[in-house]
């Protein structure tokens, strides 16, 4: 079966590089076009990325000789789908232009996330939300990922929300510097330091899980209805967002019930055996000092959500720690999993 031709928009950024790595020899998708800003356009990907490639494996051979263009649907003809890792200042407009031109968009940017017609898709959590794509009138459809900080949190909440109901959530993040893109946070601001503010992050962390955990009624997503309070911090870690979470439940589960809900959690990516589906989706570590970014980040090729330190919370009911890889599970890997789901369910035509 021939592979679907795809473009990567924002191919030179932190998320774009992950796309390039994860799409190397992909069974469903073939990268034919790479796009970035005017600064990179007209040069080969290999030339532009010589000093900008930040992943420990080499730049895949397939990408090196592709000449970068600016993101314009007329310059990416032949591609049926575009993965977007574009800067948010431009993503909204460009992604809409692609959808209008009949090219599907799988986006990591915030711009379309809260549009009621756009699924905020986390493939294990809310594959049923693909139903709302029918309400998009463009030939190309837009699908987004959630914010990288709450990706792992939402995955851990999903089986608990379904079984026990949730009254409220508090979360405290320790977010890696790669989450700010490249070159990102100046080294003099972050080395040996903690920055207790990330613009717009807490607002996203307090609303996006509610859309992901929502249900579809009459073709519309009805958000889950509980308050989330988020504190978001930047810490001097290269990759991997760690989040401390406290949850108050409608029906308080036992420790064994929480652990069993996580252990048995899987979704359509696992049942369809999608190439990027992690197995397990959630891994609980019994050690008292895990998860840690340095030790646990690459669990399941960076796609498994790693949890630990489940213990009683004296104010809410239970508290725990979640780690997820921000540029893989929180961005490019999740977007690729979403695209694999669309492919397998014949949404790509
Ligand atoms: P980044 O490293 O700053 O990369 C931004 C990309 O956008 C680069 O390829 C850049 O091209 C391109 N770009 C910027 N301005 C442009 C313009 N005017 N026209 C065309 N292309 C333009 O950012 P990132 O961290 O990869 O994040 C990309 C998106 O994903 C953002 O919306 C971010 O919020 C979201 N996100 C990031 C993460 C993460 O962990 N980093 C996780 C989830 C979601 P040049 O190199 O040519 O400038």
Q: What gyration radius follows from the Cα positions, in whole Å?
A: 19 Å
Question: What level of helicity do the residues show?
Answer: 25-40%
CATH architecture annotation of the largest domain:
2-Layer Sandwich
Apparent shape? globular
Total helix count?
Answer: 12
What ligand molecules are bound, each kind once? NADP nicotinamide-adenine-dinucleotide phosphate
Q: What summary fits the major beta sheet? A: 6 strands, mixed
Oligomerization: single chain
Q: Give the rounded overall mean pLDDT.
A: 97
Output the CATH class name of the largest domain: Alpha Beta
- Total count of strands: 13
CATH superfamily of the largest domain: Dihydrodipicolinate Reductase, domain 2
Structural class from helices and strands?
A: alpha/beta
The run of helices and strands is EHEHHEHEHEHEHHEEEEHHEHEEH
**Largest sheet, order of strands side by side?**
9-6-10-13-12-11
How many domains is the backbone divided into?
Answer: 2
Subunit structure: Homodimer.
Protein name: Aspartate-semialdehyde dehydrogenase
Domain Semialdehyde dehydrogenase NAD-binding: 5-133
InterPro entries: ASADH-related, Asp-semialdehyde_DH_CS, Asp_semi-ald_DH_pep-lack, Asp_semialdehyde_DH, NAD(P)-bd_dom_sf, Semialdehyde_DH_NAD-bd, Semialdhyde_DH_dimer_dom
Q: Could you give a quick summary of the protein structure above?
A:
Keywords: Amino-acid biosynthesis, Diaminopimelate biosynthesis, Lysine biosynthesis, Methionine biosynthesis, NADP, Oxidoreductase, Threonine biosynthesis. The chain has 12 helices and 13 strands.
């Amino acid at each position: 079966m021939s592979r679907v031709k795809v473009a990567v928009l924002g191919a030179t950024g932190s998320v774009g590089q992950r796309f390039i790595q994860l799409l190397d020899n992909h069974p469903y998708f073939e990268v034919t076009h790479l796009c970035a800003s005017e600064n990179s356009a007209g040069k080969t990907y290999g030339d532009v990325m010589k000093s900008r490639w930040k992943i420990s494996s080499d730049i895949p051979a397939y990408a090196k000789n592709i000449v970068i263009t600016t993101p314009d649907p007329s310059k990416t003809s032949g591609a049926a789908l575009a993965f977007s890792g574009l800067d948010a200042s431009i993503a909204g407009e460009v992604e809409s232009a692609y959808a209008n031109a009949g090219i599907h968009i799988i986006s990591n940017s915030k711009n379309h996330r809260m549009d009621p017609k756009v699924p905020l898709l986390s493939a294990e959590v809310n594959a049923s939300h693909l139903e709302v794509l029918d309400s998009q009138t463009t030939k190309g459809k837009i699908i987004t990922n959630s914010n990288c900080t709450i990706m792992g949190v939402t995955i851990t909440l999903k089986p608990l929300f379904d079984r026990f109901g949730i009254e409220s959530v508090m979360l405290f993040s320790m977010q890696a510097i790669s989450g700010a893109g490249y070159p990102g946070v100046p080294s003099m601001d972050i080395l040996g330091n903690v920055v207790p503010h990330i613009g717009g992050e807490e607002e996203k962390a307090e609303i996006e899980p509610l859309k992901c955990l929502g249900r579809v009624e009459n073709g519309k997503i009805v958000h889950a209805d509980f308050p989330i309070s988020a504190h978001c911090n930047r810490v001097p870690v290269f990759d991997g967002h760690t989040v401390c979470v406290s949850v108050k439940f409608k029906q308080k589960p036992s420790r064994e019930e929480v652990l069993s809900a996580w252990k048995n959690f899987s979704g359509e990516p696992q049942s369809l055996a999608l190439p990027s589906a992690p197995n397990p989706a959630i891994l609980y570590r019994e050690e008292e000092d895990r998860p840690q970014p340095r030790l646990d980040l690459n669990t399941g090729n960076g796609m498994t959500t790693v949890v630990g330190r489940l213990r009683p919370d004296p104010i809410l009911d239970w508290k725990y720690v979640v780690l997820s890889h921000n540029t893989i599970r929180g961005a490019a890997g999740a977007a690729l999993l979403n695209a694999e789901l669309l492919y397998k369910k014949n949404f790509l035509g």
